Amino acid sequence: MNASEASYIHSQGIRILPIQSDFGSDVGYGNGVTHANDALTKAHALGIPKGTIIIDDIESNSAVDAGFIEGWYTTISNAGYAVGYYENPYAGSSHFNSAFCAAVGKNPAIGNSILHSTEPSTGRTGRSDAPSFAPAGISCGGHTTGHAFIWQYGLANGSSVNIDIDEALSSVPLW
User: Fold this and answer.
1) Which segments constitute the Rv2525c-like glycoside hydrolase-like domain (predicted)?
2) pLDDT at position 60
């Protein structure tokens, strides 16, 4: 996306959820910092204001660790943006839960991150039969951790493009 495309989207009354695409290599503090700095460079080029959420896309097959989560969190939050993670919260289907809980154990502030949960997935729905907001969260030591405020509850598979069907609480600081 470029600045003129973002301007057009905003002119239509649509808000944008900035997500840094998954590069893989979601291991190590240094990689978390590198991914975050790349996202910040793009955010500054687009004119995304501080206070807006910036999400890192951590796919379910990513070998993520606590260091990566810490590097992303520290860099994004120190730059003045809200921190988020696109993640699969189901234990056994991703590495995110254990990595996130370990990161929260080292830095409890990470537990205030906004989570973009991909579960439960209800499949393709229309507006009239969309489910009530109920994203799966993460439990660290028996306590819900992180804020599952965004939910990808479905995926519409088209012939040439996949479309995520998402819902976010109004408290999420979109751009």
Assistant:
1) 2-120
2) 84
